[in-house]
Amino acid sequence: MWTSFKLWRQQGTTAPDKGAADAASSAAATAAAASIAGLIAKLDYLSRSDIEHVRQAYRFADQAHLGQLRNNGEPYITHPIAVATLCADWKLDAQAMMAALLHDALEDCGVTKAELVEKFGTPVADLVDGLTKLDRLHFTTREESQAESFRKMLLAMARDVRVILIKLADRSHNMRTLSDVPREKWHRIASETLDIYAPIAHRLGLNQTFRELQDLSFRHLRPWRYGILAKAVAKARSRRRDLIKKVQHEVEAAFATAGMTVRIAGREKSLYSIYKKMNDKHLSFAQVTDIYGFRLIVPKAIDCYTALGILHQLYKPLPGRFKDHIAIAKPNGYQSLHTTLVGPAGVNIEFQMRTESMHVVAESGVAAHWLYKVNKRGATSLDRPDTKWLQSLLDIQYETRDSAEFWDHVKVDLFPDAVYVFTPKSQIMALPKGATVVDFAYAIHSSVGDRTTAARINGEQVPLRTELKSGDMVEVVTAPVATPNPVWLDFVRTGRARSKIRHQLKTLAQTESEDLGERLLIQALRAEGIENFPNDALEYEPIWEKLLRFTGSKNRQELLTDIGLGKRIANIVAKRLVYLLAEKGERPNALLLTRERFTAHETASRGLITLDGSENASVKFAQCCRPIPGDSIVGYLGRGEGLVVHRDVCSIAKRLLNRDAERFIGVVWADHPVRVFEAGVVVTVSNAKGILAKVAATLSAAEADIIHIDMGQGAALEDTDLHFLVTVRDTHHLESALRNLGRTPSVLRAVRSNSS
After folding, report:
1. What strands, in cross-sheet order, belong to the sheet with 633-638?
2. In terms of domains, do 100 and 132 share one?
3. Cβ distance 449 to 497 under 8 Å?
4. Whole-angstrom Cα distance, residue 10 to residue 7?
5. How many CB atoms lie within 10 A of CB 582?
6. How many domains does the chain divide into?
7. Do residues 400 and 353 share a domain?
8. Active site residues
């Protein structure tokens, strides 16, 4: 977060209260920006035909905005020209320049996309459409509208990065002229810029734009703090002028002695980065020691390391302050060597070493694709680090259709502070700070993440929630039958991992609910005397169409899913289906109808739902009574939550039975459940040394794994109740564990708890 001394001498005098000289200068700058001749003069990198197309776009925009004025009273066309001028500094192509001039035509002037396609072609129209905000009348709240606008902008940006470059140029000019806007709007616009647009600029490596947006936001959010800090920096600069000149002279002399070509530029932190450091670390201005720095531009990458050696011979380096962003580039493509040295008078000074091409990428990021040919021959734009993030937006959108949820996923990826880890094949991967093993697994591939069961870091097995550190070698263990765990959502860091997990969980839940719904409908049909479930045969299509019209469902899958989730009662749907089948000539089987009615209370009934523990989202085991295999159980079809299984002695289940008897269905345990189940245990003990360890050891010996322990909030008494949540296979396993606990010294009683 550096900017040149010269730039800050200009900005430092621009306090919140503008003088006449500043106003005159600003007016002159605006007049120059408004001149189409000034814009055309910057387009010398385009062909004559391209420049003519830009002129045509200008004439169309000028006509479209005729009569519209900016807040400062100037013609509105001055804004599109200023935006296009900023884009010209990035050497964007003719289509982008045309879109920059037309970017407000769709939103503010009633121009249609079809008109733009006809006059300027589909690519330009698509760029303008990607930049256009959505009509807020389509949304219920301002937040929903804003989230959908950002979703549209970011997806358009993922398909064509020129969209966000034009958008950032648009925001930059709006921030430069924010002082002309009513003061009550400053906070909202500046906050939005600081929270959203500045991080996007940083994520794409547009550091110059990033710094400017931050400082302009700071200036309007905290005008007095901005002014005071600007004066403090100006005073410090004047005091340290001799010191800076001395350092520059000594560095130039050292490189001249080494016979090495180098370009040296002085740098200092931006006002916002100084303010943020003071605020985050509770420092005074005098305690911020790394305000000043130098940037060294050298011919080749190897010269960066040579320059580092020369500097370390000249001044002593600070331990732990060396960073090699050349060997391991930042996620946004930034490359440089950083080192902090103790200069004259004990002042800490940061030096950055980079090549000319690295410098262009560092300042302009993704825009360097047009500014400077930094790509290797044969490499595509998608190979660059700064565009991989854009591609991930499309993946997130595929799983996330809700705009607010999409924006939540994207926000966590906007800040590129990264850790660098290695795959078992020594490939380097960059992940956000705080990323976990699960984030790493999903960064490799979604199928790897979905099937993750365990992980090793540097050869040692670790929990999946373990946060990664730079230099870790991470190995993921997968299993073909594994599925994502909802608990992962509590600790994953990346938007990609979060969206993939949610998408997979929704898919699994829908599939399981559909299967459950079909089983429930088959059971209800058998109770009505229909043995054969209507299949997908052509002869049953009219019946399914009539049934879907009756229920209001879109398709058969949605109807079965709604039954599985408890949104529809299987008995009601079955009765309607029986009526439709009767119209077709299929009558209930009297023998089946009689048998089902007389055996509905017995486990022999073929209509019962069998549970083996493999059910995930579609079946829940009530926490009020925690049923386990061997218990007598009942099933309650909750509204929208699928099938909830209770013990038949559960008081809550009994209350539900009195209120919603039609929602209860028969359920039984499978002969061989496939997993363990949770059960509550209360152990009353005499307070003695090491008693908790003895109880835990007894449970462990009984193969009852402890999930949770609750010892209460009060001080331990002579007799104390310990509440355990353990995993067991069935009631026989639980009874065995309780008997073992009862034989343990100092244990007075061990019983199964019943929360209800």
Report:
1. 619-621, 642-647, 633-638, 664-665
2. yes
3. yes
4. 5
5. 12
6. 5
7. no
8. 107-108
